[in-house]
Write a structure and sequence with these properties.
The complex is a heterotrimer of chains A (284), B (426) and C (287). By secondary structure, chain A is an all-alpha fold. Chain A has a single domain, classed as MetI-like fold, CATH 1.10.3720. In chain A, 74% of the residues lie in helices and 1% in strands. Chain A has 14 helices and 2 strands. In chain C, helix 3 (68-75) packs across helix 14 (252-282). The chains are: A mainly alpha (284), B alpha/beta (426), C mainly alpha (287). The A-B interface holds A 35-38, 115-116, 119, 121-122, 135-136, 138, 140-141, 143, 224-231, 245-249 and B 67-68, 70-71, 74-75, 77-78, 96, 99-101, 186-188, 191, 245-246, 248-251, 253, 257, 260-261, 264, 266, 388, 391-392, 396-397, 399-400, 403, 405.
Chain lengths: 284, 426, 287
């Protein structure tokens, strides 16, 4: 038993210090009004009441929409690309490298670039659209599609990761299974559905969790490209917290948002885990 | 005999000790929040200051953008590790002063290493930046650093081609923008006018329309009617006339777009800060001019940029070093070199009148516009609620009108209510 | 046994297949162009001079290429120190994350002790605390301890990874206890068991996580910025941010040159490690 605690103890201590302490701190600050400079004043549950506004509901909606969009699209696209690139040719390796290159580049560099590329008046994208006689789109300035734009840019940047992971997952599937299925008369689609997809379940779950967590923490892209705008169309959760804390110096309200965020995601992650756990046992 | 020895020893010790104490320079930190060219210019001046004397040594560090820097300063103040010197935007100063972050600089200004406060350009100083709302003025706690006003930049070649002169009134602007907009079918190739939909410019328009932000006692909002008029001017230009481009992005991202559009000749006229004059001059491959902002009831502009402040909670020797640095930075010689390198305005009358600058202005008349425009500079109310009104009430909500989500009347009405809420706290 | 290439050998090549193949190739080319295009654009911009940057329609190949942009970016700040700090920070974080992660993962998966599952839930809870939330309390804490502007302030807050612990635990759970028993019978001690036996088997998960961690921390701008107030331990992303002037789009070419300093090392590491990464995944456990 001491072995157990000895192994997890050091980690737990660090977790407590660098993750839980800030959460506890946030819970504590959430019942005060504090701006970092003057002494805090008691606020009770007022921050939570103030939090529950149409703007906040929009933030939650935006965050969920963004996350779902990014996770589903990048995973699906990553899988499709992995299937297409699953041969050991040089060309494939080149394609893989090109797709992965945008994953490793920093957000700051690419976000600035995309702002420029997406300019509806003379960005490269507008230029290309005009070549095929399509009208220019106000990608970042139209509040109806700004969030979709961010999803697309995020997918563009991160699809390299599911690609690499899926490729690896695919190449771990023994070839004899395919041969056996082919001998049984299975076509491409059936091979995928009955051999590939089930055996990729652990990979899919891994990516689902990793990408969901990462997308919920999306921040840099908003900070650089839209700053939550137009108006609040791209205000996602972490940026909202950042804005309340760093721009309005409402640490109490920001902390309340943190506590709510925390509660929401625990619920979400548990749900995802429980949902897929049974599927996982199937492959063991 | 023993007393003689004691005296000699004491004098000797003091004499030996004194140079040792004077040798180690007092080090102090200066936190700043800009990068690029301004950073290089500032660092060059910091170096010059350090080399020009051996008593103090200033270390400048970049702290992120304006808001990140302010957050760190507050956190540092809470742990008593604030830097000796930093800079702040004018609108934030009343609240930060009230929260006790700033050192009172009057003793320093009047002291042995003092500075001639009368030589500062009217419109540049803390006392001419603020309207103290009928109350006694706050003591001196800030010296001007990089200061600016918004000006009209216009593509001289485009205007000349259409036989237009730079607009001086709102109506002329509207007219010129319509004539300068170039359309190709349903697409707009060149916009007539562009301005970031931003508090600073709205403030200008508010006053140009004859309005003001708060009542003279600073207790209530006074901007509803004229603020609506100001905002509606933009709304009409963007949505009805379709001659104005609203640059996407918030805060400085939008400013960046407007500047780039101007350089790329995608827009004929823009409002932006005089601070970008160097950038424009270096990069515009066409003749451009600068002019006062067009007025309506009158011509009016806010001033902008940042002020130097010294942290109250820094240790005394560091504050002394901080003062020495900002005093030096605001001396005529430095303000001339800072201004010429960036496009920000010189802050001293003696600097503006110096032969060097007069010569410079003759050769670069665009640089003179902001200085001349100072006579129409408007003051900001010295209210701790000012920064909240800017950041929470006005700035985030202007967009919605231009995007057609709400009407300007609705927005200003809501803004008025929220402003009164904020003001009731003080 | 290593796996065989996954593309099945037994299939009939029909014209339908050729069409699909052709379309696939075109689609892939488009995707590759979209993916790498902007990146090439970065490179191209970094070699231009200012007039060329703002010109439209833009040209791809600057003539002559301005390599001095790189010198200018490099000289604008202590980039060498930033680069060294960046390596120390990223490697330090990874090593600690894997070290603590493997130990804890073993404890959570293969050792029974009271409170285990509750404690694991605590770890899961930490998965979603973003750095913007952790900044203020940790800044105050490190400031009081006099640890601001030290490597500790950059590394310790990330020394344990909830994601890493979770993923490695999942991988460990897949390993049958028989293997462990056999190893114990052979006299393997705890550390040997974890690091010599289990880690190699869990290599896919560990490599996948390491990839994520390295890319994230190498490019991290926010944490090194807010936890440092001077250049002592600052990293490359901050150096690049300092090249930006807010409000102007002025020196894109220098900003892009600076960005390349951040990008090229990671790409180089990936290029070298790519084969190893793929190979790590094809190792299957022995039964």
């Amino acid at each position: 038993m001491w072995v157990g605690w000895g192994l997890v103890g050091p980690s737990l201590l660090l977790f407590a210090l660098v993750y839980l302490y800030p959460i506890v701190y946030s819970v504590w600050v959430s019942v005060y009004d504090w701006d970092l400079a003057t002494p805090a004043r008691w606020a009770g549950l007022r921050n939570y009441r103030e939090l529950w506004s149409p703007e906040f509901r929009e933030v939650i909606g935006n965050t969920v929409g963004y996350s779902v969009g990014v996770v589903v699209l990048s995973q699906a696209l990553g899988l499709v690309l992995a299937l297409a690139l699953n041969d050991r040719t040089r060309l494939s390796a080149l394609f893989q490298a090109s797709v992965f290159s945008s994953y490793v580049v920093s957000w700051v560099a690419v976000s600035l670039l995309w702002v420029w590329l997406l300019d509806p008046q003379y960005g490269l994208v507008a230029y290309l659209l005009s070549l095929v006689r399509l009208p220019a789109v106000n990608w970042l300035g139209d509040h109806r599609i700004a969030l979709v734009t961010l999803v697309l840019v995020t997918v563009w940047k991160t699809v390299g990761y599911p690609l690499v992971i899926y490729l690896a997952g695919l190449q771990a599937i023994p070839g004899d299974l395919y041969e056996a299925a082919a001998l049984d008369g299975a076509g491409d689609w059936q091979r995928f559905r009955h051999v590939t997809w089930p055996l990729l379940t652990p990979t899919t779950l891994f990516l689902l969790i990793t990408l969901t967590i990462a997308s919920f923490q999306g921040f840099d892209i908003v900070r650089i490209m839209t700053q939550g705008g137009p108006v609040t169309a791209t205000m996602i959760y972490v940026y909202y917290i950042y804005e309340q804390a760093f721009q309005y110096f409402k640490l109490g309200k920001a902390s309340a948002a943190v506590v709510v965020f925390f509660a929401l995601i625990i619920a979400l992650t548990l749900a995802q885990w429980l949902l897929f756990r049974r599927r996982l046992e199937y492959t063991a | 005999m023993r007393r003689m020895v004691a005296l000699v020893l004491t004098v000797g010790l003091v004499w030996l000790g004194a140079p040792a104490a004077a040798q180690a320079p007092i080090t102090a930190e200066f936190w700043y929040s800009f990068g690029g060219k301004n950073r290089e210019v500032t660092e060059a001046h910091i170096k010059k200051f350090n080399e020009s004397q051996s008593k103090y040594r200033i270390e400048g560090t970049f702290q992120g953008d304006y808001f990140q820097a302010l957050a760190k300063i507050r956190a540092a103040a809470a742990t008593k590790t604030a830097p000796a010197v930093f800079h702040v935007i004018g609108e934030a100063m009343p609240q930060l002063w009230q929260q006790g972050l700033f050192e009172n600089l009057e003793p320093y200004a009047k002291g042995p290493n003092g500075t001639n406060v009368d030589d500062f350009l009217p419109g540049q100083t803390q006392h001419t930046y603020f309207d103290y709302l009928g109350k006694p003025p706050a003591p001196l706690f800030a010296l001007p650093f990089f200061r600016s006003t918004p000006i009209l930049y216009y593509n001289a070649e485009m205007l000349q081609a259409k036989g237009l002169k730079p607009p001086a009134t709102w109506d002329e602007l509207k007219d010129a923008a319509a004539k300068l907009t170039v359309r190709e079918g349903n697409e707009i190739k060149v916009y007539g006018f562009e301005v970031p939909v931003d508090w600073w410019f709205w403030f200008a328009l508010l006053h140009e329309a004859g309005g003001s932000l708060l009542t003279p006692d600073g207790k209530k909002a006074a901007f509803r009617e004229k603020g609506t008029e100001a905002l509606q001017f933009w709304v009409d230009l963007v949505n009805r006339d379709r001659t104005m481009k609203r640059p996407p992005g918030k805060d400085y991202s939008a400013w960046e777009v407007a500047n780039t559009d101007f350089i790329n000749q995608r827009v004929a006229m823009i409002y932006t800060s005089t601070a970008f004059l160097n950038y424009m001059t270096e990069n515009a491959k066409f003749k451009f001019g600068t002019a006062f902002l067009p007025g309506k009831a009158k011509q009016a502009v806010p001033t902008g940029g940042t002020f130097f402040v010294v942290a109250r909670d820094a240790p005394a020797p560091q504050k002394e070093a901080g003062w020495a640095f900002i005093k030096w930075m605001t001396e005529p010689a430095q303000t001339i070199s800072l201004s010429k390198a960036t496009g920000y305005m010189p802050i001293r009358t003696s600097a503006v009148n110096s032969p060097e600058m007069q010569d410079f202005y003759k050769q670069n008349p665009n640089y003179k516009t902001a200085i001349d425009q100072l006579r129409t500079a408007q003051r900001f109310p010295f209210s701790p609620g000012l920064i909240e009104i800017q950041r929470e009430v006005i700035q985030p909500n202007l967009e919605a009108a231009v995007l057609g989500i709400k009407t300007s009347a609705e927005i200003m009405q809501a803004a008025e209510a929220k402003t009164n809420d904020i003001l009731s706290k003080y | 046994m290593a796996s065989v290439p996954a593309a099945p050998r037994v299939h009939r090549v029909t014209r339908g297949h050729r069409l699909v193949r052709g379309l696939t190739l075109v689609a892939l080319a488009v995707v590759a162009a979209i993916e790498v295009g902007p990146y090439i654009w970065m490179l191209s911009t970094s070699l231009k001079d200012l007039p060329a940057v703002t010109q439209f329609p833009p040209s791809l190949l600057p003539r002559p290429p301005r390599w001095d942009n790189y010198a200018k970016a490099w000289q604008s700040g202590p980039f060498l120190r930033y680069a060294v700090n960046n390596v120390i920070q990223t490697v330090g974080i990874l090593v600690l994350q894997l070290g603590f992660g493997c130990l804890a993962a073993y404890g959570f998966s293969k050792v029974r002790f009271p409170g285990r599952d509750a404690m694991f839930l605590v770890v899961i809870a930490c998965l979603i605390v973003p750095p913007q939330v952790r900044f203020v309390p940790l800044y105050m804490l490190f400031s009081k301890l006099g640890l601001l502007n030290t490597y500790a302030s950059l590394i310790v807050p990330y020394a344990v990874s909830a994601l890493g612990t979770f993923l490695i635990r999942e991988a460990f759970m897949q390993i049958s206890d028989d293997i462990l028993d056999a190893a114990r019978v052979d006299g393997a001690g705890l550390f040997t068991l974890i690091f010599r036996i289990m880690v190699p088997i869990a290599r896919p998960a560990i490599v996948a996580f390491s990839l994520f961690s390295v890319v994230y921390h190498w490019n991290d701008f926010f944490w090194p910025l807010v936890m440092t107030t001077n250049d002592a331990v600052r990293t490359l992303p901050i150096g690049v941010a300092m090249l930006r002037e807010e409000g102007t789009g002025a020196r894109w070419h220098i900003i892009m040159a600076g960005s390349m300093f951040v990008v090229v090392p990671v790409l180089a590491v990936f290029a070298v490690a790519q084969r190893h990464i793929i190979r790590a995944f094809t190792f299957t456990s022995l039964k």
